[in-house]
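Holo model, heme C. Inputs:
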Amino acid sequence: MNFWLKIVGRGLCIFLLLSSCKKEQKTIALEPEEFELQIPPGFPEMVFPVDNQFSLSRWKLGKKLFFDPILSRDSSISCASCHKQHLAFADELALSPGIKNRAGTRNATALGNIGFHPYYLREGSLPSLEMQVLVPVEEHNEFDHSMLEISEKLRKSTNYTSMSFEAYNREPDPWVLSRALGVFQRSLISGNSPYDRFTYQGKHDALNDSQKRGMALFFSSQTQCSKCHSGFNFSNYAFENNGLDSIYADPLRMRFSNNPADAGKTKVPSLRNIGFSAPYMHDGRFKTLSQVLDHYQSGGNSHPNQSPLVRPFTLNSQEKEDLLSFLLSLNDSSFTSNPFFGDPNQ
Ligand code: HEC
Ligand code: HEC
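Output:
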């Protein structure tokens, strides 16, 4: 496991000692002395913005912030409250509450391979991870805070101040805050599932026969799954309406574009680690992958914007089981248990 992270020095020894902690819900955090991002076979390079290149000190600062409730107005929740490592940085709740238990409006997305996305949020309204940080920080039903006030709080901490100087050679401020979180999130790379070992690492026994049959179904013109969930990250990042409703309570991409032709369309989600990130869809309406398959088999609810790729098909019970086991082969447990992505503030 962790074959794409080159860990040297003290980190490796501690890591080996702790590798039996795999099944823990909360991973015991480890701080490596060196951390080099390695891209899994079959994946493209991770592009860091010119003004925010990867460094260990930036990554450590970003990780500390990601897990620190200091970001919320009443210091009650952190990014990790809704993006939990053991769930591939998603949440088991359909809608995650913000501070003071304020109701959320959408299902929290998994963050594995998030740095490869061309734009963020389901409507695709934000072009970078650095900009996306503003959303949870300022949303009334998330942190309900402000970048400036958080920066003031951070400047009172000698630890944060010295980490910030080490990482960016300046005091904690909104610029540092958003960039450090961007660096940490780009390191959340997941590419060691059984599917990856089979497809990109030549391990012919990494998938069992049922998963291999399920893979053929996934890539078939019968199901059409791979027309939208395509490429190494199982998303073509297009905006599609997959036929969940005849009338959508959440306008999704139309919220951003104001164009009725976008109603009910969302960025096609990645299916990596899908077995960890239930419940499913933008509102978390489906608790199981079996329910998701029932939806697709039904052919959808004929919204005017529904993609023609979503249309009825029939799987017998063996085929359904095969497709489900293929979807589970996209789970990368070395990612969800990687101690280097654990909470450093514990
Ligand atoms: C209260 C729960 C909550 C908290 C706290 C929270 N998020 Fe999220 N996050 C969500 C939800 C819900 C979405 C989906 C929003 C959407 O679909 O438009 C999301 C989406 C995202 C996305 C976009 C994913 C994509 O596929 O485009 C990123 C990146 C992200 N969050 C990072 C963070 C970071 C970094 C923090 C802390 C600064 C944070 N989140 C705090 C609930 C939360
Ligand atoms: C027309 C493009 C398209 C096709 C074809 C398609 N999907 Fe999707 N899929 C989407 C979109 C868009 C969403 C997100 C919808 C939402 O959140 O409201 C989605 C969501 C999902 C989810 C839930 C993801 C999550 O994190 O919540 C799963 C699982 C899924 N699809 C599996 C499949 C399977 C299996 C097939 C084939 C039977 C398939 N999809 C076919 C576009 C498509």
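Confidence is low (pLDDT under 50) at residues 1-24. DSSP finds 15 helices and four strands in the chain.
Archived with the compound record.
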